[in-house]
Amino acid sequence: xxxxxKKQFGILKKLMQRKDVESLICATDTGREGExxxxxxxxxxxxxxxxxxxxxxxxxxxxxxEGFQKLRPGTEYDMGWRQYAGKPVEDAEKNAEAGDLPELSxxxxxxxxxxxxxxxxTSPPKxxxxxxxxxxxxxxxxxxxxxxVERKGIGTPATRAAIIEKLVQKGxxxxxxxxxxxxxxxxxxxxxxxxxxxxxxxxxSMTADWEEKLLKMEHxxxxxxxxxxxxxxxxxxxxxxxxxVKGADVLIQPExxxxxxxxxxxxxxxxxxxxxxxxxxxxxxxLWKENRxxxxxxxxxxxxxxxxxxxxxxxxxxxxxxRKSNRYYDTTVHVETGEDGAAAFKLEFGGKK
Length: 353
Description:
The structure is a single chain. By secondary structure, the chain is of the alpha+beta class. It is built from 14 helices and 12 strands. A hairpin with a 7-residue loop joins strand 8 and strand 9.
C-alpha cells in the first residue's frame, strides 16, 4: 500500500469496524473499476458486514431517496467476481472471505463457471428545471478548482440566471412543460452548437485552469503576461488547426432576417425557408410563402408584401385575377389576427386606400 493512500485506507477501516455501522452500501457500477476497488478495500479491511447495493437513475434528490428505499442485497451481484478459475461458488466465497485471491499470470486461461442474464429497462435522465440547472452550473467541475478560488462552476450567483435567459432568447434552449413545472430542453440549434464547438472550449475544466492561474496571479505566483500569452496561443491554435465538423454549414444556419415586429406579441418576425414567422415559438402568427389565399388571387407572398402586412397591416394588390369572372382587378388586402394569433386576410374594394 502506497503512503499516499494509507491514511485514507485507515479511515475507511475504522468506519467499517465501528460497532454502530451494521451494513455497508456500495454505490458503484457493477463490474466496473469502482466495484473492484470497493471489493478490494472491503476484504483488505477484513470486513464481514452486510453489503447492500444502491442504484439511482439521476442525481436528483428524489431519485437518490428512491434509491435508498430500494436497496438490493449485495449478494445478487457476487457471481461476476467470485466465480473465477473454474472453482465452485462455495470455494470462491471461502477464499474471498479469507482474502485469498488466485495467482494470475499473463496468458492464463480461466474457465467460466456460469453466466446470469438479467433483463431490465433503463430510463433517461430527467430533464433540467431552472433550479436544477442553476445548481449544476454552480457545481460544474468544482472538484477541479483550486481550494482558494471563490468562483467555481459556470458563472456567478449574479450571472447564472442571465446566462440561461440569454440561451433561451438566442434559441439554444427552450422552456417546455405545463404552468406548474417548466423544463429546459436543448433545441436543434443548441445541439448543433455543441456539435461544432471544440470540446476544449465547452469544458468547465478550462475555466478551472484559468481560475487557478488567476489565483496564483493574485498572490504574485504567476505572470499576467504569460497568462494572456497562453490564451492568445490557444485561440490562434484552434483557428489554425481545428477541423470544421462536416456539415457545419447546414447545422449552423445564418441569422434569420427580421422584417418587422409581430402584430400579436411584439417579437421579431423572421424569414425562414417556408415563410415569415414570429420568433416566439408560443405565438401562432405566420405568413406562409406557399399561401393558398394569395394563390387564388394569382399572387405570391413576397418579402415586400410580407413587410407591408407586418408593419402596416395592409398592402395594395394590383392586377389580381378572378376565376369566376375571368377578369383582373385591384384591391387592398388587410391582415387580421384571431384570438390564437393566427393570421387571416380580408379584401377591401373601392379604390386605392
